């Protein structure tokens, strides 16, 4: 059934359009008349170009109707439709409107969050002269990039081709090589719809060529010029060859003019086709078969498939210890969904998880999988998104935003490592992927699986109450014991005279691991070399001039860097305050650990993974492949290596400093510490070889460290819930964080205080309003920061109150550049 309403073709059609202008004053739809020529193209969810004030802008059609409340004389027309297939489905439009209310953001911001970056327009302003008068013209730029190739269709035998090339005096070409190349090269399967059908800017164009001859001629050609390879000949007969001109030129030492001359001679015909970008086109994924499940896994899978059969929305919390086989359950659940002709979305929290996860899902489902994450180019991401929109794939795997994949028949949503804070977007709209998954699951009446060895407290509390269905996997699939954990008190190491960053226990185990030619993972949640720099004479600490935070020293490029705004300055050699050269570097980062490893263990091979080493595209995959191919002994890194990775020879995990998160001003610090320690411990001994974990800490008595060492989630949960109840934090209370920022501190203090006073009068008496007070980091990027915290158990009108709050202060926001951000259920309080 079509999603379009039935419209009388004899009456004019009115489109309700929301424009891409992120302002609260225009956060609604505007009526535009659809001219007869565009009536077939304008659909609900279409991108359109419309006049808006003095300029043209891009908008989205959210509805179609036959009448308008506006004066018919004033109604403007839709000028252009940008897509043959609308990028927004009715479901996604409904989701965007819900997000706008739930997260107190603009509707257009919610809709834009769902779409690839290339679909978002930019407006350019230029001045033109018209009849001697200057006029300002606004033009909308559509940034969609479609990659073109020129295709040369060839219908000659090898002998005819060589003769023609000789006639054309192709001096630099060995004639037989040209024929052999055309006969043997195979690009098949990448063509798609005609470019003429795409109403998009064609910014990225490359030339190409294809040879299409009869099977008989092709067979003769291959016999004459190819090795006797049955597979190659079979592929030739199955596919149409697409020969890109640039590759022909390079590999055959020919020229573009040669190919052009062949066209002019009537031997070939050149046409254009679209070539979709595939980030994995040069990768070969070994196909895998479903594994035999344990009895416990089979029980869990049965409950999920029953929900699929009943077409019932049901949230499952899959709580399984590390190495218990959660991924295989995901794979077999998806396989079941695909057999029912439905689709699935799989979320992973970190870009570093995607290489191994992509291998597993591509290996099982092949070309049915689209991959969406931020490290793809804009063009690659757009083409992967189009595969989903056009129904060419059935599975989407990716980070947070992959949850907006434009499937229309979802049968399953999976959020792996559901406890991860990265599932919460910290920019507007500040949504949580878990909430979006529940919305889409309800819409499609499909199950949602939240999987983790260390679920967040809110999720586990909901499972305890029966809001989620709890599924448990308490044993590893190969029957191994969870690795023993040794807690080392670094205070005692210091008293014993050990001033290195490696305890005696860890030092000995590293040596044993190297002797056995096994591998290890070393974890430290700080990048850089030193965490702060101080003058020993006057106590001066080097800080960022734009943020209230100390600069981190990075030895690799001899610079001090701010991890909040990106400010950098050269290495400090003398104190700016007292001119002393007694500069000392305090704290430890991953760069320093790497240097110390080379110093204490000669010949050791280290792969370091942190933000600094993984900035280039494909860096995660290359580094993990090096480690997986046993080209390194140590995988050293930050939290990106703490979860999801599975390497057969890893038998040792070392946590350099378990306290790095424990003492942050955040009520979730104990929970995050427990989760990281448990997750990184789970990298050891996952296969036949037994594992061991060493946790170095200055607070060994803390319950988060003790329970993590015992692999006891329930004990941690019970202990932490007591603390949350006493202090009034989730899951016993809901939180909303309001952050005010401005460049002028006195102005900020005055306005935030007045705003919070008004807010206190609007909420119910049982809602606790704290602040305003300076944030934990009082200044970032030259803007001072104050916060207000709302704690409540039940505030049904809160969305309405917060919307009114922004409405009341909209003039102040626009005139004074005061920024107000509202974060419902925040994950970060700093």
Automatic annotation (TrEMBL):
GO MF: hydrolase activity
Positions with biased composition (Basic and acidic residues): 228-237
Catalytic activity: ATP + H2O = ADP + phosphate + H(+); Couples ATP hydrolysis with the unwinding of duplex DNA by translocating in the 3'-5' direction
Top-level taxonomic group: Bacteria
EC number(s) reported in the record: 5.6.2.4
Cofactor: record remark: Binds 2 zinc ions per subunit.
Domain (Helicase C-terminal) ranges: 567-724
One Pfam entry name: Helicase_C
Residues annotated to bind Zn(2+) 1: 535, 538, 575, 578
Record domain Helicase ATP-binding: where: 307-473
SUPFAM superfamilies: P-loop containing nucleoside triphosphate hydrolases
Coiled coil (UniProt feature): 151-178
Keyword terms: ATP-binding, Coiled coil, DNA replication, DNA-binding, Helicase, Hydrolase, Isomerase, Metal-binding, Nucleotide-binding, Primosome, Zinc
Region Disordered, annotated ranges: 192-237
CC cofactor: Zn(2+)
Annotated binding of Zn(2+) 2, by residue: 544, 547, 562, 565
Free-text function comment from the UniProt entry: Initiates the restart of stalled replication forks, which reloads the replicative helicase on sites other than the origin of replication. Recognizes and binds to abandoned replication forks and remodels them to uncover a helicase loading site. Promotes assembly of the primosome at these replication forks.
UniProt-listed HAMAP family: PriA
Family affiliation: Belongs to the helicase family. PriA subfamily.
NCBIfam families, alphabetized: priA (TIGR00595), PRK05580.1-3 (NF004066)
Subunit structure: Component of the replication restart primosome.
Name used for this protein in its record: Replication restart protein PriA
Gene this chain is encoded by: priA
């Amino acid at each position: 059934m079509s999603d379009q309403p039935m419209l009388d073709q004899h009456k004019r059609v009115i489109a309700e359009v929301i424009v891409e202008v992120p302002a609260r004053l225009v956060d609604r739809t505007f009526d535009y008349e659809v001219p007869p020529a565009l009536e077939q193209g304008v659909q609900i969810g279409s991108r359109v170009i419309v006049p808006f004030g003095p300029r043209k802008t891009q908008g989205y059609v959210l509805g179609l109707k036959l009448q308008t409340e506006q004066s018919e004389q004033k109604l403007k027309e839709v000028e252009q439709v940008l897509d043959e297939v609308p990028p927004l489905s009715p479901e996604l439009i409904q989701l965007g409107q819900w997000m706008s209310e739930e997260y107190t953001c603009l509707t257009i911001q919610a809709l834009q969050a769902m779409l690839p970056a290339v679909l978002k327009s930019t407006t350019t302003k230029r001045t033109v002269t018209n009849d001697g008068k200057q006029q300002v013209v606004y033009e909308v730029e559509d940034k969609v990039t479609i990659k073109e190739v020129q295709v040369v269709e060839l219908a000659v035998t090898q002998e005819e081709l060589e003769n023609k090339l000789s006639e054309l005096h192709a001096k630099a070409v060995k004639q037989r090589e040209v024929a052999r190349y055309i006969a043997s090269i195979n690009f098949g399967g990448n063509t798609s719809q005609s470019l003429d059908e795409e109403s998009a800017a064609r910014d990225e164009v490359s030339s190409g060529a294809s040879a299409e001859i009869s099977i008989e001629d092709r067979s003769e050609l291959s016999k004459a010029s190819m090795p006797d390879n049955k597979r190659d000949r079979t592929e030739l007969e199955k596919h149409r060859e697409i020969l890109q001109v640039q590759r022909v030129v390079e590999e055959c030492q020919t020229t573009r003019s040669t190919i052009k001359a062949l066209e002019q001679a009537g031997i070939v015909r050149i046409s254009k086709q679209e070539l979709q970008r595939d980030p994995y086109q040069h990768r070969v994924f070994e196909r895998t078969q479903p594994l035999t499940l344990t009895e416990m896994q089979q029980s869990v899978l049965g409950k999920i498939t029953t929900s699929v059969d009943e077409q019932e929305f049901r949230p499952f919390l899959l709580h399984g210890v590390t190495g218990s086989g959660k991924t295989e359950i995901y794979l077999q659940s998806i396989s079941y969904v695909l057999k029912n002709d439905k689709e699935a979305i799989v979320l992973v929290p970190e870009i570093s998880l995607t290489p191994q996860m992509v291998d597993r899902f591509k290996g099982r489902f092949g070309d049915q999988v689209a991959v969406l994450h931020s490290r793809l180019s804009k063009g690659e991401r757009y083409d992967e998104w189009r595969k989903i929109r056009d129904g060419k794939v059935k599975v989407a795997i990716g980070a947070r935003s992959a949850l907006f994949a434009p499937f229309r028949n979802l049968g399953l949503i999976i959020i792996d490592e559901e406890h991860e804070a990265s599932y919460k977007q910290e920019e507007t709209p500040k949504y949580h992927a878990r909430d979006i998954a529940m919305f889409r699951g309800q819409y499609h009446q499909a199950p949602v699986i939240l999987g983790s060895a260390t679920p967040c407290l809110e999720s586990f509390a909901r499972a305890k109450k029966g809001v989620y269905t709890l599924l448990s996997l308490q044993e590893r699939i190969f029957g191994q014991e969870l690795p023993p954990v040794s807690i080392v008190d670094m205070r005692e190491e210091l008293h014993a005279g050990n001033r290195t960053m490696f305890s005696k226990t860890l030092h000995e185990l590293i040596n044993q691991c190297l002797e056995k030619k096994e591998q290890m993972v070393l974890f430290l949640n700080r990048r850089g070399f030193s965490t702060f720099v101080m003058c020993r004479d006057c106590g001066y600490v080097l800080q960022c001039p734009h943020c209230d935070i100390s600069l981190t020293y990075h030895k690799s490029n001899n610079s001090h860097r701010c991890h909040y705004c990106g400010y950098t300055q050269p290495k400090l050699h003398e104190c700016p305050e007292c001119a002393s050269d007694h500069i000392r570097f305090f704290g430890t980062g991953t760069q320093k650990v790497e240097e110390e490893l080379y110093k204490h263990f000669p010949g050791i091979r280290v792969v370091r993974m942190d933000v600094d080493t993984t900035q280039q595209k494909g860096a995660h995959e290359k580094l993990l492949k090096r480690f997986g191919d046993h080209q390194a002994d140590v995988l050293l890194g930050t939290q990106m290596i703490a979860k999801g990775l599975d390497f057969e020879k890893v038998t040792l995990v070392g946590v350099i400093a378990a306290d790095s998160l424990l003492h942050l001003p955040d009520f979730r610090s104990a929970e995050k510490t427990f989760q990281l320690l448990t997750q990184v411990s789970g990298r050891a001994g996952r296969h036949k070889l037994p594992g061991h974990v060493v946790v170095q800490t200055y607070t060994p008595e803390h319950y988060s460290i003790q329970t993590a060492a015992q692999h006891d989630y329930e004990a941690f949960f019970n202990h932490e819930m007591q603390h949350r109840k006493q202090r009034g934090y989730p899951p016993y209370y809901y939180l909303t964080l309001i952050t005010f920022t401005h460049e002028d501190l006195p102005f900020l203090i005055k306005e935030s205080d007045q705003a919070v006073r008004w807010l206190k009068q609007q909420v119910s008496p049982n809602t606790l309003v704290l602040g305003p007070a300076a944030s934990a980091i009082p200044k970032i990027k030259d803007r001072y920061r104050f916060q207000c915290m709302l704690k409540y158990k039940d505030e049904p009108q809160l969305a309405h109150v917060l919307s009114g709050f922004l409405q009341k202060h909209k003039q102040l926001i626009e005139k004074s550049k005061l920024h107000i951000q509202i974060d419902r259920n925040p994950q970060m309080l700093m």
